[in-house]
Design brief:
The protein is an alpha/beta fold. The protein is built from eleven helices and twelve strands. It has two domains: about 240 residues, 3-Layer(aba) Sandwich (Aminopeptidase), CATH 3.40.630; about 110 residues, 2-Layer Sandwich (Alpha-Beta Plaits), CATH 3.30.70.1070. The protein has a six-stranded mixed β-sheet with strand order 2-1-3-6-4-5, sandwiched between helices. Strands 7-9-10-8-11-12 form a six-stranded antiparallel β-sheet. Helix 2 packs across helix 9 and helix 6 packs across helix 9. This is N-acetylmuramoyl-L-alanine amidase.
């Protein structure tokens, strides 16, 4: 009889524990790197800690708005100094399911570099490049700003190659998921925010070493490169990067979150990869150059502010638009180079316009006051330009596309 009672109690406890575990919210910890007295890498007019925080908060907002079944925890939401071990403790104490640390890259001297890269825990030997080692040293150097750091990082010297073998077995069970998430980040951020893909790397980064869940550290771009610094501080760029990181998170969660909430949990839905929200207004105007201009290879588009739009009518369409009303266009390509109108990069599209944003040439097609026409045209061009999206102008200035759509609908309803 006693054995039966014990068995029943065990079954009840197992059932309750299973329900509690199934009903546990997925916990995401977002770690904006540096902060407070630790400014991180310096730029010409900004510092790393602020860029990290802005993108981390943008990412977190998208998760909070679109994933009600996810608990979002920040290691910091203001400009404060948090030791590396404490950042890891925050994630460990709340039993996080995923940890992401947001950072900004830099190079010393007059060297320039561009692009987005992701790090997971590792010894660096599979990517034994000096640049990767420098990243590890720079991100770990904050340890020396902490009191009693030797007590918290026993056996770990950020400047010692020997320390790379201390943690080889730590997080082995999480490494596969970490690398998978890193690949998702590279895919979505490089495609959605049009960043140069600098790949997935492994390094002995203390903030990853001390966590006990799948974890990645991202390097958004190079604050030491002038155009990258402008991009990283641009309001629209911050939003787009946050959105792209969210899409990577949504893919990861849908793949690995096996929990079941009661009564029901929806899938984390990815968002349209490019956002036109928070776009600042353009200033001057230019037209597409003639076929005598030089051609160049395409480069990744980078959303920035201070734009300069101009429409180019073509023999095929000769569309006349009223600039006093919203003019909708499809943005298909961005480059640092100025292309001639018949360049092969446009894949046969002839009604090509462009506008400038901080030295970047952004190419569009399909200008029309009728949003429905542009919407249908986008369906035709996405086969050649999968990242194509709709933007809007009015009186020569770029406007929020949603505001343009509302005005378009109002104009139709008053006719």
């Amino acid at each position: 009889m006693a054995k039966k009672i014990l068995l029943i109690l065990i079954l009840i406890i197992s059932f309750v524990t299973g329900i509690a575990g199934a009903n546990k919210k997925f916990t995401l910890v977002i770690d904006p790197g540096h902060g407070g007295r630790d400014s991180g890498a310096p730029g010409a007019f900004s510092v790393e800690k602020n860029i990290n925080l802005n993108v981390a908060l943008a990412f977190g907002r998208y998760v909070e708005q679109n994933c009600p079944d996810v608990r979002v925890v920040y290691t910091r939401k203001t400009d404060v100094f948090i030791p590396l071990y404490e950042r890891a403790n925050i994630a460990n104490n709340c039993k996080a399911d995923l940890f992401i640390s947001v950072h900004t890259n830099a190079l010393k001297g007059v060297h320039t570099a561009r692009g987005f890269e992701t790090y997971t825990l590792g010894d660096g030997r599979s990517h034994a490049k000096e640049t990767n080692l420098e990243v590890a040293k720079r991100e770990n150097s904050v340890i020396f700003l902490e009191k009693d750091y030797k007590q918290h990082y026993v056996g770990f010297d950020p400047n010692s190659p020997e320390s790379n073998i201390v943690f080889e077995l730590i997080q082995e069970k999480n490494l596969s998921k970490s690398i998978d998430f890193a690949k998702m980040l590279q895919k979505h951020v490089c495609r959605g925010a049009n960043r140069q893909n600098k790949g997935v790397h492994q390094q002995n980064l203390a903030v990853l070493r001390l966590t006990s869940m799948p974890a990645c550290l991202i390097e958004l771009g190079y604050i030491s490169t002038p155009d990258e610094e402008r991009f990283l501080n641009n309001k629209q760029s911050i939003d787009i990067m946050g959105r792209a990181i969210y899409n990577a998170f949504a893919e990861y969660k849908n793949k690995y979150d096996r929990g079941i909430t009661v009564p029901y949990k929806t899938m984390s839905q990815p968002l349209q990869e490019t956002s036109t929200e928070n776009t600042e207004k353009p200033k001057t105007t230019k037209s597409v150059e003639t076929p005598t201009q030089e051609s160049a290879t395409t480069e990744a588009k980078q959303p920035e502010n201070k734009t300069t739009p101009q429409r180019q009518n073509t023999p095929q369409q000769n569309v006349v638009v009223d600039d006093n009303k919203p003019v909708f266009k499809i943005q298909i390509l961005v480059s640092r180079n100025k292309f001639k109108a018949n360049n092969k990069v446009f894949k046969g599209i002839t009604d090509v316009d462009f506008y400038e944003e901080n030295g970047m040439y952004k190419y569009t097609c399909g200008a029309s006051n009728n949003y429905n026409n542009v919407y249908q045209r986008r369906k035709e061009v996405i086969a050649d330009f999968p990242g194509a999206f709709i933007i809007a102008f009015k009186n020569g200035e770029k406007i929020d596309v949603n505001a343009g759509i509302r005005e378009f609908k109002n104009n139709r309803s008053t006719k």
